[in-house]
Please model this.
Amino acid sequence: MSARAIFTLVLLALLLGALPLRAQAPDADPEVTLDQLRKQVETMQKNLANPDPEADLLAWRSSALAAQAQAQAMADALEPKRTSVQARLAELGVPPADKKETPDIATLRGQLDKSSNALDAQVKLAGLVAVEAGQLADQISVQRRAQFQTELGHRTASILAPAFWSELRDNYAADAGRLGALAAELLQALRAASVGVWVGMAAALVLLSLLRRKAEALLLHIATTRIPHGRLRRSLFAVVRIVLSVLAWGLVAVVVRSGLEWRGDLSPLPHGLLVRSLGLACFGGYVVGLGRALLASDRHSWRLPALPDAVAAGLAWFPLVFATVTTAGWLVERLYALVNASLATTVALNCILALVLGLSMVIAVGRGERLRRQLDRGPDADRVPPRPLWLSVLAALVWLVLVGSVVALLLGYVALGGFMVRQLAWTAIVASTTYLLLVLIDDMCMGWLATNNPDNLPAGVWRMRDQAAVLVSGVGRTLVALVALTSVLSPFGDGPPELMNRAAQFSDGLAIGEVQVRPTAVLLALVVLVVGLSCVRLLKRWLVNQLLPTTTMDTGMQMSASSLFGYAGGVLVVALALSAVGIGLERVAWVASALSVGIGFGLQAVVQNFVSGLILLAERPVKVGDWVVLGTVEGDIRRINVRATEIQMSDRSTVIVPNSEFITKTVRNITHASPLGLVQIKLPMPLDTEVDQVRALMLAVFQDHPEVQDSPAPSVSLDGIDNGKLVFNATAYVGSPRLSYAVRSDVLFDVLKRLREAKLPLANPATMVLREVVPVVEAVAEPTTPISPISPVNP
Model:
């Protein structure tokens, strides 16, 4: 059963006591039953052509829906038999044309042919009756709406006018006579009850009262000790209070009915009235429990809505009054329908009951507004939360409907005023139930599915649980809101029985084109989707952690294989979910064809990158862990997604590159062919350097480094002479290209150190010109060459 049908059952099943979702196939002869159903439908069709103005169209529609359900049940029951007979005929095969069959096979074939024809005719007749009954129900609904709209504009004498009471007085004698027999029989049943019966009834009522209080106290204790603190315990306790109220009122009605029927001699009329009173009592208990659970005037800390304590305490009386007036009104309407009361009496009672209900709602709303204004003007006004705008607008609309309904009732528009009051009361019940269910679903999802202590779980697990809780809560609350909206916005004039019949048809689903979307199918599709994706996730984790590490695949190939498995599993799960709904892959083909033009233009780049991603995962020109160079981008591939590839740069930043870049452009994959890295050093040395000593020194440095590979072995070559220097070219290999830079730096440091220790210069010393500075002496010195005194001194 879908969530929508369950919610409607919560709202309406208490009115009638039980909900027959499907009429079971009778045990009588199918041909006789189908013939009776067809005659019944034909009779109703003839009566509908010239209907009686006072005819009960609602009863007619209920009969038509019952006939439809019974015929459909018979068709469903006969279909497996027809399939079985046809399968047995298929096993016998086609009768041979050239020779006769054996007598046993011929007799069996004749019997199966006869049974197949009879079953085929019965299934077709049942389907025809179901279709005709459904069409008849739709015609009755249209006529009921037209009749209801006509009645809304009909005006009778005002309740304030003397004509109203005089007409009621004139019809009182006849109506009292119709009610006399029923009242006399019930009174006789009361008088016939023995003292033991009365004592038993009184004891049972006292015991029920005590049990209810004890059960409520026990459940309150369990909620406070076993359920964690939060809204979940409050919402669950509110539901428990409602259930206890329904049980209490229903059991009280059962006790009273048992006392009245103790002797078992009641006629069908009072018996039917007592049976219907059980459902109405349960509904009254539901309304009382719902009101008290939401107001929670005795336990303000357990109150769900944000109502001030003064307002909740001032409205504590309203749920009981509201439930009593509502159930009494429906019971009186059903009673006068059973005894066929006069129109004037029925209108008068409807007017009085609607006026009482409307005035009680006016008093309750007015009292709540007055208490609210007193709180706003009181000393604790800052603690009262401000009223939202939508709530103010809603209150204004409620006042408008209430005042309009009371004025209409006083003016004599009984049908219009009564409809407005009853619709407002029904809307209040649906809205209150919807609020409680929304809170309950959200609290259950967040309290049971969500992670309350994420520190004890891995990040992925608690995040997935929180997402699942939010998703389930959203889906459940959406379904509840849709059902509530359907119940409130149902065609005007539809009563609880009509909504009950509509709830029974929810399982048939909604036809969208050629697809029949059923709530059960949608629920099954959601289950398939969730379970399937969970299984794919678990299998992918098993592949990554257990199976693939035992194979000869490298890390990149393992990640590519797990990604392909995840994509394929996701597509398969979505296809299975669509099939569960009833949408096969062949139905999706025309959608893909219609979108091909849009994909060709608007989604060309996305599709190109998607296909490129599949090519990368399949051909593996690059894989996860490779060191690639793409234009100005150089780094390690960390992840290959469907649309783009993530490359981590040397500065730890990530570059998102579309997959099409790897297919349409030149890509240098440094680690594609070999994972080894090259370390190369070119060292200039003077021309007079001992080349063998330098060669041995550099080879020793390579051999002493732990990252240098033994195979291929390091080598030192002499490239030539450049600018008067010998150029040594030393090469070695390391385990990964990512180690080349660090190893090259270590080797250079070590080579320079050893060259300095060996006193081997890297280059010849530079040629320099030195000039000696002679100091200037100020003293007079002897001439180095003696001057002869005879020789003349040249000036």
